[in-house]
Write a structure and sequence with these properties.
The complex is a heterodimer of chains A (237) and B (222). Chain A is 35% helix and 22% strand. Chain A has seven helices and ten strands. In chain A, strands 1-2-6-10-7 form a five-stranded antiparallel beta sheet. In chain A, helix 4 packs antiparallel against helix 5 (128-159). The longest helix of chain A has 32 residues, at 128-159. In chain B, 56% of the residues lie in helices and 10% in strands. Chain B contains ten helices and five strands; from the N terminus they run ααααβαβαβααβαβα. Chain B has helices at 2-14, 33-42, 47-67, 73-96, 117-128, 142-151, 164-167, 169-180, 195-200, 210-221; strands at residues 103-109, 131-135, 156-160, 186-189, 205-206. A five-stranded parallel beta sheet of chain B has the order 2-1-3-4-5, sandwiched between helices. The chains are: A alpha+beta (237), B alpha/beta (222). The interface between A and B is medium-sized, with 28 and 27 residues.
Amino acid sequence: MDFLEADAPLLDGEEYSVEFEALALNPAQVEWAMGYEPGQAPEPVPGVIAELLVEASRHASVKVGVRLFRAPEVLLDGAAMQVDGVVLNPGDRIAGLLSGAREVAIYAATAGSGVDDWIRAQFATGDPVRGYVADTIGSELVERAADWLEERVIDHAIGLGCFTTSRFSPGFCEWDVSEQHALFSLLPRACCGITLTETALMLPVKSVSGLIGMGPECERATNACMVCTMKTCFRRR
Amino acid sequence: MDDILQRIATCIERGKVNATSPYPPDLKGQDGAHELTKAALEMGVSPSDVLAQGLVVGMNSIGRKFSENKVFVPDLLMASKAMQAAMVHLKPFFESGEAKHRGTFIIGTVQGDLHDIGKNLVSMVMEGGGWQVIDLGVDVSTEKFLDALNAHPGSAVGLSALLTTTMVNMEKTVAAVRAQHPDTKIIVGGAPLTAEYAKKIGADAYAPDPQGALDYLVGAVA
């Protein structure tokens, strides 16, 4: 499949290439992802972040794919929802937050296999700090790609006279990660080049997937961690 | 003697590898873990004291701060680098038997899971805590854990997983280890795990962080 340019309108079933620069990933975001307040990471971490952000831009191949489903393709039933005949079980909390949704966006995003290879190469230097910083940059890069997609979903929702929910992903809150298989069955085959292992691990590893609800009554959680029950999550704030 | 051991502990905790390393800035130009450990041994400090009163003290301190969210993963990694620099000098004493590890710890990420950062952090803290670590890597089968236990009988075992789909593989490994080596201490850890789940699958402990794994094992073998 051909990838569309980033400034193209949001189209059902399409995949988009997003330039590294468009994601505006900055050192403060990487520091925050590691747990530090911006500017508080000890030396040599800030220097490593600055160096590896430049390197990451040469290895990233960011892609985002989306499908849009609207009622009656979307049916909500208690803790489960049915999208185009595929049953998803995101759990009570997420289903509750999706209860006013008339349309859902199912998406996947990846930083590309080049980023996975580059992260492995950084660990192989024998400097675990470089490896960890590279890994964090890879994670943040794909989260920023999902942010990029979410902004376009919000624009799309506004066009429908709707609001959006937060992003929800298998593996977070009460949504079991094994549901990746059902979620990906709703996306184009090998969406963005992402494949799933038997244990629902996405390859490339630096990939994310999920859904966003749209409806006149939908709301975004001000802090998604307040909704989530995963007390030991590494992203919890 | 106490002074140099304290300085070694400080270098470990602050990630001061050697005299040429410019970090942390306030220790620039000073000896690091590499030089101080060598000097302590040359002064006649026993390798066991260097380990217990220098390296272990430094790693315990940074490990505890990590548990309390006062420092973060890079701080722990930098401390580990300093510890490795010190360990170079202690290795011959471990090989000769003059210095002894607290025990052996076999660790791996369970079958089907490729995540290794958490596992590696536990390995580093355990090694800094005086344990010999056998790191089996990622996507480790039950058979591989059993082979390692057969090669190193009496070892403790650590199982790591980051996904709910792979943490279920822990149960099979725990059962197989229990069947062949019933007295083995087994610790499990990883983002989706809980103490309740650890108990359910028959593990001895759930470690919420690397220091938790070390603290449990130190208590278990004391």
